[in-house]
Amino acid sequence: MNMYSPPHPGEFIKEVYLDTLEISYRKIAELLNVAPSTFNRLINGQSSISSEMALRLSKTLGRSPESWLIMQNKYNLWHTKKNLNLDNVEKLNFEKKKKQYA
């Protein structure tokens, strides 16, 4: 199990692309053909990467669309694992069911 908090994809974009290349979020939004407010919410961690955004990011910034979605899923899963109580969720006993129907 990973013990670190993966970055939100927006944080990654901000650090790796915007800060490193010294380019504004408005310019990237223009290249993505999305509203600046939409991209701003993404880079501030207020929205998630959708399949559509993954395709746009892939074309504009590189990386595969799948890699953008994987990054988002890792972020979501890590935070959900920290906050979700599974104490009342039960595991299905497959062996017991197989014998019952045999």
Summarize the structure.
The protein is built from 6 helices and no strands.
* Poorly predicted runs of 5 or more residues: none
In total, how many beta strands? 0
Assigned CATH class: Mainly Alpha
Helix tally equals 6
Which geometry do the CA atoms define?
elongated
CATH fold naming:
434 Repressor (Amino-terminal Domain)
CATH level-two architecture:
Orthogonal Bundle
Structural class: mainly alpha
Instruction: Give the ordered list of helices and strands.
Output: HHHHHH
Q: In percent terms, what proportion of residues is strand?
A: under 5%
Largest sheet data: none
Tally of separate domains:
1
Q: Report, as a whole number of angstroms, the end-to-end distance.
A: 37 Å
Amount of helix: 55-70%
Mean pLDDT: 92
CATH homologous superfamily caption: lambda repressor-like DNA-binding domains
Q: Roughly how many Å is the radius of gyration?
A: 19 Å
Give your account of this protein's structure.
With 102 residues, the chain is mostly helical. The protein has a single domain (9-83), classed as Orthogonal Bundle (434 Repressor (Amino-terminal Domain)). Helices cover 66% and strands 0% of the residues. The chain is built from six helices and no strands. Helix 2 packs across helix 3 (36-43) and helix 4 packs across helix 5.
Map the helices and strands:
Layout: H1 9-21, H2 25-32, H3 36-43, H4 51-61, H5 65-83, H6 94-101
